[in-house]
Design brief:
Blueprint (H helix, E strand, L loop, with lengths): L7 H8 L16 H4 L17 H16 L3 H13 L4 H10 L2 H8 L5 H9 L3 E3 L2 E2 L12 E4 L7 H9 L9 E4 L4 E4 L14 H8 L2
Antiparallel strand pairs: 1-2, 1-3, 3-5, 4-5
Helix pairs in contact: 3-9, 4-5, 5-9, 6-7
């Protein structure tokens, strides 16, 4: 399976914004943006170049890909699906990205970052509708339930997550039943649920060239 490699902190510095790729570390003074708020590389501290219109669109696409941990080919496929659906293409794209299995696990609070949630999914920690699914890119639907694999309940990451989940505010489209340890996709995500500043229209314009 293809995946992003290398220092994720460099990705945040390249985009000039916190992408929250390292979970709790991003909230501390150790965050690379806090310590070195300039682009990586030999000339990172120099004056930033002014991007062309295409460059601005490209950077926005790269930023969104990095937030959700998606490579170019699947991202383009997501866009093609979003473009065919009724409604606003950019919002359709964000809805699909939010419904990825790894993102839902992150949003529920089972992992401190999307990268960590991908690892948990690939290692078979969760069921969807009582069936084990280990594909991070699996797209959930409204009404789907997420439960913990009984064989993984005592694993440290899961135990730690369950201890802190009651203090976590979930987006309106997700719910969690603490008694039954079951998550629910109770609605479809909307544009307002994406809190990181994203200009999805720039991505639409890029792919419409």
């Amino acid at each position: 399976m293809a995946r992003l490699t290398g220092s994720v902190c460099r990705l945040c510095r390249r985009e000039g914004i916190k992408l929250f790729l390292k979970g709790e570390r991003c909230e501390t003074a150790k965050c690379a943006i806090e310590k070195r708020g300039y682009a990586p590389g030999q000339h990172g501290q120099g004056r930033r170049s002014k991007f062309s219109e295409y460059g601005v669109q490209l950077r926005e696409k790269q930023k969104v890909k990095r937030i959700y941990g998606v490579l170019e080919k699947p991202f383009r496929n997501y866009f093609a699906v979003a473009d065919r659906k009724k409604g606003v293409t950019g919002e359709n794209l964000l809805e699909t990205l939010e419904l990825r299995f790894d993102n839902v696990i992150y949003r529920l609070g089972f992992a401190p970052s999307r990268n960590a949630s991908r690892q948990l999914v690939k290692h078979g920690h969760f069921f969807i509708n009582d069936r084990k699914v280990d594909i991070p890119s699996y797209i959930l639907k409204q009404g789907d339930t997420i439960t913990i694999n009984p064989r993984k309940v005592e694993k440290t990451p899961i135990k730690k997550a369950l201890e802190t989940m009651k203090n976590r505010t979930l987006p309106h489209w997700l719910a969690y039943d603490f008694e039954n340890k079951q998550g629910l996709v109770q609605a479809l995500p909307v544009r307002e649920d994406v809190t990181i500043p994203i200009q999805e229209q720039l991505i639409v314009e890029l792919y419409s060239r």
